[in-house]
């Protein structure tokens, strides 16, 4: 009786099995059929919890990026403040060096001039010493030796510091180096437009004129002023 019941159930299930294609050779439903897998997949999807990992990872990445940017901003701010402080220190040191150069820039020149002053003082002392009455020759000799020594020393100091006396006699008149005092008639061997006489010497410091030479310029007789 049980066998008859099973055969009856099989006959009723056979059309359904044939339409789905999920039966085996004996007409039973295959456990790994497509219908079974689809049904199982739908059941699993319906029972899975919602995906909450995506937004959490994105928020965490944004927070890490924000922290990194904040550290970079702090580092750049510190560097900027240090650069400003270093620039201010350099400006102060430079200003102090400029002020010292203005005050002590001629220190070496003054030190050499002190030696010239010593020679002049010694010469004065020698002249002021008591000499025999009427012995003017000895006094003049002391004055001459002292002045000669003083001139030699002074020229040495000038040459050491780049101070040069101009000797423009015979040179063409240059308004950048010469100050015209007057015109004089050109003599024998003197070209018109050249310096014939120097009234006061001019000086150059390292090639730059610091005092013009006062000169008389030769001209032809009909152009004499």
Helix content: 55-70%
Which consecutive residue ranges, at least 5 long each, have pLDDT under 50? 25-32, 34-49
Regarding CATH, which class of the domain at 162-224? Mainly Beta
Average pLDDT number: 78
Whole-angstrom Rg:
57 Å
- Say how many strands there are: 6
Strand content: 5-15%
What characteristic shape results from the CA principal axes? elongated
CATH architecture of the domain at 162-224: Roll
Class by alpha and beta content: alpha+beta
Series of H and E elements: HHHHHEEEEEE
Superfamily (CATH H level) name of the domain at 162-224: Head domain of nucleotide exchange factor GrpE
Summarize the main sheet.
3 strands, antiparallel
Main sheet strand line-up: 1-4-5
> Span between N and C termini?
163 Å
How many helices? The count is 5
CATH fold assignment of the domain at 162-224: Nucleotide Exchange Factor Grpe, Chain A, domain 2
Describe the structure.
The chain has 225 residues and is an alpha+beta fold. The chain is 59% helix and 14% strand. The protein is built from five helices and six strands; from the N terminus they run H-H-H-H-H-E-E-E-E-E-E. Strands 1-4-5 form a three-stranded antiparallel β-sheet. Strands 2-6-3 form a three-stranded mixed β-sheet, with no helix packed on it. Helix 4 packs antiparallel against helix 5. About 11% of the residues have low confidence. It is found in: Mitochondrion matrix. Probable component of the PAM complex at least composed of a mitochondrial HSP70 protein, GRPEL1 or GRPEL2, TIMM44, TIMM16/PAM16 and TIMM14/DNAJC19. GO terms for molecular function: adenyl-nucleotide exchange factor activity; protein homodimerization activity; protein-folding chaperone binding; unfolded protein binding.
């Amino acid at each position: 009786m049980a066998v008859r019941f099973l055969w009856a159930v099989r006959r009723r299930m056979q059309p359904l099995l044939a339409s789905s294609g999920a039966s085996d050779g004996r007409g039973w439903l295959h456990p790994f059929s497509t219908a079974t897998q689809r049904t199982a997949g739908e059941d699993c999807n319906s029972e899975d919890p919602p995906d909450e990992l995506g937004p959490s990872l994105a928020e965490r990445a944004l927070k890490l990026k924000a922290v990194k940017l904040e550290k970079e901003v702090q580092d750049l701010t510190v560097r900027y403040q240090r650069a400003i402080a270093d620039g201010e220190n350099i400006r102060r040191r430079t200003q102090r060096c400029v002020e010292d150069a203005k005050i002590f820039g001629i220190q070496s020149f003054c030190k050499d001039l002190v030696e010239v002053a010593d020679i002049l003082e010694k010469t004065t002392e020698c002249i002021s010493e008591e000499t025999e009455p009427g012995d003017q020759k000895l006094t003049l000799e002391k004055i001459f030796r002292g002045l000669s020594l003083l001139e030699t020393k002074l020229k040495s100091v000038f040459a050491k510091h780049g101070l040069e006396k101009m000797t423009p006699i015979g040179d063409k008149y240059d308004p950048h180096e010469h100050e015209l005092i007057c015109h004089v008639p050109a003599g024998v061997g003197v070209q018109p437009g050249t310096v014939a006489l120097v009234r006061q010497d001019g000086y150059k410091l390292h090639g730059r004129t610091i005092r013009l030479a006062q000169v008389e310029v030769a001209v032809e007789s009909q152009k004499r002023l």
